[in-house]
Amino acid sequence: AQKITQTQPGMFVQEKEAVTLDCTYDTSDQSYGLFWYKQPSSGEMIFLIYQGSYDEQNATEGRYSLNFQKARKSANLVISASQLGDSAMYFCAMRGSGGGADGLTFGKGTHLIIQP
Amino acid sequence: SAVISQKPSRDICQRGTSLTIQCQVDSQVTMMFWYRQQPGQSLTLIATANQGSEATYESGFVIDKFPISRPNLTFSTLTVSNMSPEDSSIYLCSPGLGGHNEQFFGPGTRLTVL
Fold first, then answer.
1. Distance from CA of B101 to the nearest CA of A (A)
2. Cα–Cα distance, B78 to A30 (Å, whole number)
3. pLDDT tens digits for range B68-112
């Protein structure tokens, strides 16, 4: 079984600052994948970034990067140069060794508010 | 990424009734995942539907309450049966498109039960 912990229920950040959203995970699987999603108030789930447990480099996608520290079982999302449109709920999720055959386990999320 | 659509986008239903949610994908997929997001909560996996076999339900979810169909590789339905106000949630489908390094979601069905 997998478990995701997001310890920041809410965050306020000034526009243009960098943001780090925390995520720790627990699993007994050797192979697993970690995901981050953005959910604006409209409710859609927007896939942001993926990190595989065997990936040697941290994943990056535009302004998003994933700070993956395997020994600490953490997978923090870093958003550089935050924008007002980044205000949303952010969810960390993972799936285990079943790969695409497994569903995702989600954390409780972090509500990020970018202030002008 | 594939185009994923859900119908209805939202609905308001009376307790005791049932609602069938449709999920359509523009490409063939083997696995279809259904999730529930209760108000102010995170997403929880309801079941995994593999075409040609019975759906597999997660702990706390049963087939009588959430029957799922997978008539073909591009379509699936989730029925919420004998609804109560506690079933008020967003229901999302998520097709397994084959790549292990991405997972997309449909736009969701926002259900309110009175």
1. 6
2. 33
3. 999 999 999 999 999 999 999 999 999 987 667 889 999 999 999
